[in-house]
Amino acid sequence: MKNLSFPGLPRVLVVDDEEGVREGLRTMLQREGVHVETAGSAEDGVRRVEDRSYDVVFLDINLPGADGLSMLGKLRRGSPAADVVILTGYGTVANTVEAMRKGASDVIEKPFSSDRILAVVRRVLETRQLKNELTWLQDRVRELTATELVGLSPAIREVQTRIDQVAHAPDTTVLITGQSGTGKELVARCIHERSARRHGPFVAINCAALTESLLEAELFGYEPGAFTGAQKEGKDGLFAVAAGGTLFLDEIGEMEPSLQAKLLRVLQERSFRRVGGVQDIPADVRIVASTNRDLRQMVQIGRFREDLFYRLNVMTVHVPPLAERAADVPLLSHFFLDQIGRQMGKALSGFTEEAMETLCEYSWPGNVRELRNAIEHACIICPSGMIDEIHLPKFTGGILDGSDQIERAAVVLDAQDRSIRALESQLVARVLDETQWNISKAAAILGINRTTLYNKIRLYDLGKRPMRAKVIV
Question: Less CB within 10 Å around the terminal CB: N or C of the chain?
């Protein structure tokens, strides 16, 4: 309604067998910017509620074939449930009490005035808005730590600085680049939550997950009967749903060229049209897109529109792979351990030295997503206490390249001790030196596991590995 901040267009359903009442309410509420649909029977009303959600339902208490009160519960299905306002020409205390007992938000007697209808709708929508904001705040508190960009390395600090810069320009289009699993959606959420649009919705869609026609319908919405299989009432698209907030287009590089042209128009004109529609609808959203592809190269081979690339590439945030921010692995590991341990209700206190070395020495081709999965695996396996090396998953991709090979040189044994033990001691020491005490590589070259290698280091008193800088968490 006018002067009322509400996510998207408020939806009202009028269930009344009198056409004059239905059309009168439709005309009145549509002037206030409310989307109104009507039904001439309780059965039709129930079918509509089953197909889609509404904010307010006006329900006549006396309907042919069914008592309005008996259908009230069915009309309040859904999450969140619609607020039902009873319309009655026979206002009695008994009817009012029964309606309120069954969950009605208000009772209005016929004939009614426009002021009475508008006052009730405004009150109901304001209450729903407050409930939505309360739910959002509760979810925000629960997810606060989950949406923080964790890290102290120079690479991630640069990303955090970029996010703060972009957040102060709430309408500027942002392109986020980086490998899969680096946390591009998390960066998009951080941009949204630090901007003036944080009170609006954050809506995300994966452009690679849908066909071109389905993606177009999801983004722009469609008019009734726009195509075969379309809902007869039409549907709002994500540009409408995200009004006042942020629309995150993940994997933008997978969008088909014909749809890229339509997205370009939205960015240029700040408006869009539903599929099958002729009316321009304002697009009050910030577009944040992400890709793990090289869009410049895609432009050169004709796979991505050059004009759209420059429209998207106003501000770029590059999220580095985990291999370039290896100093953050201990911090991230403890962060995920605390988060997942609490979710599972387990008292997990940390990592053993061997487990942390394994985590720090692995290359993490799946980036932060793979690290989190590894910690979750360990939390499931470990009953309590500290995560040890045996609790971690067996990492893949550990094929050794030429840099892992040691020089072929003779091992000289003392004439007084030519035992296998002496030979093994020198071999282990040589491999450790050649690999600069990279335990994972040394164990792989020797053909033993890391635990066995640690035992041999202690057995042969080979000393400790060279000191490295540690991240204190």
Answer: C
